Amino acid sequence: MVDVRSGIGEALPPPEVEDVELYHPHSWWTRYVFSQDAKIIAIQYGTTAIAIGMVALALSWLIRLQLGFPGTFELIDAERYYQFITMHGMIMVIYLLTALFLGGFGNYLIPLMVGARDMVFPYANMLSYWIYLLAVLVLAASFFTPGGPTGAGWTLYPPQAVLSGTPGGRDWGIIMMLSSLIIFIIGFTMGGLNYVVTVLQGRARGMTLMRLPLTVWGIFTATVMALLAFPALFVACVMMLFDRLLGTSFFMPAIVEMGEQLQHGGGSPILFQHLFWFFGHPEVYIVALPAFGIVSDLISTHARKNIFGYRMMVWAIVVIGGLSFIVWAHHMYVSGMNPYFGFFFATTTLIIAVPTAIKVYNWVLTLWRGNIHLTLPMLFALAFIVTFVNGGLTGLFLGNVVVDVPLSDTMFVVAHFHMVMGVAPIMVIFGAIYHWYPKITGRMLNEAMGQIHFWISFIGAYAIFFPMHYLGLIGVPRRYHELGEASFVSTSIAELNAFISVMALLVGAAQILFLFNLVWSLRHGREAGGNPWRATTLEWQTPETPPAHGNWGKELPVVYRWAYDYSVPGAPEDFIPQNQPTPGRLSHEAAS
Amino acid sequence: MSVVLFFLAAIAAIVVWWLAGQRLTSRPWLEIGHLHDRRGPARIPPAKIGLGVFLAVVGALFSLSVSAYFMRMASSDWGALPLPGLLWFNTGILAAGSITLQWARAEAGRQHDEAARTGLLAALASGLAFLVGQLFAWRALSGAGYFLAENPANSFFYLLTGMHGLHILGGLIVLGRVTAHAAQAPIDSRTRLSIELCAIYWHFMLIVWVVLFALFAGWASGVIDFCRQLLT
């Protein structure tokens, strides 16, 4: 459906997209608070996600204090411990990672990178943020309800999640949690529609799909997946709310609680697991695909080299997105399912390793003989590759039924998913913030503080999670408040746990330095200019930095080339922006 | 979970068909200059694509619920529930609303503003009538002793009809706004588009309702059994 016209001097084809009429804010409130500008919404999403993420970080400290020094802190009793791990997991996975990648980076980067003035439905976009904020507030409010937040574990498995033995099960905790998730999904759907339709319909002239930066491909595919996967969580939450509040038996089997026969009967807890993981597995890639996309752009820009195998990268993103919907039951190997199902899901799980490995090879090949600048975004991108490979390899262990069964519910699993969907995406988030902060604020983040932040976070993350694999192999179970006296628990395990905890405290403290840097550099950072990284993609070519409302001034950009024209032989500079028709800027200006 | 997998396969087929037209095998690094990117013969308005994506989400929601229905149905405590005859009447009303909206859309296209307004009002009325009818069906059932928590079949009936009703309610709010808008000013291209989108939404919700109705009446399980026999 595309004509390639090689002649640069030919008349421009007529615009496909009429320039849009933007909503123009009239007051401070509609400009900065109830803003319909995707950039402001992105910053709102980002700050909210980071704020609630800091709560989750503090919770992880408390978890580690208990695990490293059991019995020392009276505050952390078993009930609280379960509440902490539950809220830590849920906040990190959904309210931080999903919201920051799609709501934060999606909102900021999609319109700028595809050359649009804004999202196509700005009003729904604004609502999306405010509904997300409501979800966060409901979640945070559950800390202050009688009985506290739910302690059911982030997977919220019934029947325990709604029973009195679990913190918050018979109180408000689980109700608030489920409501908050339902609200989140409604808000996300509004935003998600925007991201998808903007990529489909809002692209600038000449911006074909195969000229999109991989960041946009990653966020786009992840959004499509999220739109199809979140309904599973939605249905599961609604049904569990019914079970908890209205006495239905969707998930609740006949059960005796405290010597009393409950009125439930016949329900299937496995049904919940199917629904939860039908969302839960795609969720891993909903977080990972934007990270894949962003890291591709970071590596290409900071190694001054075009991305190796662009087409393959795009195909891999799409294939991973598709495959991730048929692997969910690998989280349920120990649920007593038919072994043939286990075999099927193990196979699909291992097949996903193929496109994923292609991406890793392509990143490495992009670096190979590149002009690598060890800037902060590049350091974080490199850290991501290493960490992702590490986490991915243990994923191959756990994907096999026979290996998974003994490792199930041990610290090995905790170490695996923290590496692959905790540390690795967070590294990309940091890299992306260091990379795009100059565009968002007009100033660079402080380099020295950034270096300290990077090295502590990177080495610290390994000091935390490498030993954790070992603990898991020995058989230390996850979700245990205290190990107590068991024959396999040697004193060295306690020492290792204490070491991990100290490291966790240190890494957490480094994040406070990072937050300080974010605030400090707003005022005192070095002036960045419009394109400090000398990057090709459209967001760096805006007439103003930070981009004004409407992004592009009078004229929408026209795209003449793909996003990775770095170090093109014969070009006067080592990058050619996407909206530049000829290699040399000067000759272009002379021609026009 | 096979129902949702079939649904996703359909979505995947659409995605693959669309991607096939996007030159995914081109070599973007060699193509410098104007690339004329035709996004379909006549440009589809963003709102229409947005609705399409939204309907895919709604479809996923209902097919997941139906999957859950079948999985839960397999347990021994399942006791089917007698469908009130009123549901046939409600189905007719919903279908009538769908037809009226289609008619209003055609009339709006022919610039017959008055007829289009009549159609919109009729559709609005039939949508409301459907919701009221559903409430009466609920009352009839609970009056006969079929309460929500009594049996999983009852729970699913109330849950699914409730979810469907909420979607109709949301549609009615939008339809009400469109009707008010159409009543105030001559129908322009924007309102025409809104009427079209409402019509598409109504058709979709009608299909969802027919599937749910078939499910409650037990016909769907016959189809599933037949498919299972084919597969095994």
TrEMBL record, chain A:
Catalysed reaction equations from the record: 4 Fe(II)-[cytochrome c] + O2 + 8 H(+)(in) = 4 Fe(III)-[cytochrome c] + 2 H2O + 4 H(+)(out)
TM spans (from-to): 40-63, 83-110, 130-152, 172-193, 214-242, 284-300, 312-334, 340-364, 376-399, 411-434, 454-476, 496-520
Q: Name one GO cellular component term.
A: plasma membrane
| Pfam entry (one) | COX1
Which Gene Ontology BP terms does the record give? Answer: electron transport coupled proton transport; oxidative phosphorylation; respiratory electron transport chain
Topology relative to the lipid bilayer, per the entry, is:
Multi-pass membrane protein
Keywords, A to Z, come to: Cell membrane, Copper, Electron transport, Heme, Iron, Membrane, Metal-binding, Oxidoreductase, Respiratory chain, Translocase, Transmembrane, Transmembrane helix, Transport
Gene Ontology MF, one = oxidoreductase activity
Give the SUPFAM superfamilies listed for this entry: Cytochrome c oxidase subunit I-like
Q: How would you classify this enzyme at the top EC level?
A: translocase
> To which pathway does this protein belong?
Energy metabolism; oxidative phosphorylation
Main localisation: membrane
Name the Enzyme Commission number(s) assigned to this protein. 7.1.1.9
Family note:
Belongs to the heme-copper respiratory oxidase family.
Q: What does this protein do?
A: Cytochrome c oxidase is the component of the respiratory chain that catalyzes the reduction of oxygen to water. Subunits 1-3 form the functional core of the enzyme complex. CO I is the catalytic subunit of the enzyme. Electrons originating in cytochrome c are transferred via the copper A center of subunit 2 and heme A of subunit 1 to the bimetallic center formed by heme A3 and copper B.
Under what name is this protein listed? Cytochrome c oxidase subunit 1
Annotated organism of origin: Sinorhizobium medicae (strain WSM419)
Automatic annotation (TrEMBL), chain B:
What membrane topology is annotated for this entry? Multi-pass membrane protein
Q: Name one GO molecular function term.
A: cytochrome-c oxidase activity
Biological process GO terms, please? aerobic electron transport chain
Membrane-crossing ranges are: 6-26, 47-71, 83-104, 116-136, 156-178, 199-220
The name under which this protein is listed is Cytochrome c oxidase subunit III
Name of one Pfam family that matches? COX3
Q: Which keywords does the record carry?
A: Membrane, Transmembrane, Transmembrane helix
Domain of life of the native organism = Bacteria
Lineage here is: Bacteria, Pseudomonadati, Pseudomonadota, Alphaproteobacteria, Hyphomicrobiales
